[in-house]
Specification:
The chain has 129 residues and is an alpha+beta fold. Helix content is 39%, strand content 26%. It contains 2 helices and 4 strands. It is rod-shaped.
Amino acid sequence: MKRWVLVLTERGSDREGKRRRIAALLVGLCGLVGSWLVGTVLASDPIGYGVPIWPFADRLDRAENALLTQVVSSVRDNLPLPHDDVRVLRRTDAYGSEFWTLQLKVDGETRCREVAVGLNVTSRRVSCS
């Protein structure tokens, strides 16, 4: 004997599921694009942003960071620089800090950084001209 059963579903429940899936997809996409943008900014100057690690910094960036950390104590104490690979291009005083423009020779490549010595030591990449 056959038995027939009437099945009722709520109207619109499928729409809510679609909306949730679309919202989850958009959140995931925004997260992916946002992390790509943050990574791009950090990769532009990983030493200046304080992240000289693998996904953002290459081999030369890590070598430059190692050389810069050896030089920072001499710059802070206003002593002669301990390396032949580092040359001072300019020194200026402004806003209660001292700004040094250093030319660094890292693995055959010349890079320049402006180092600000105040309460904290910060730096940014600048052109060598």
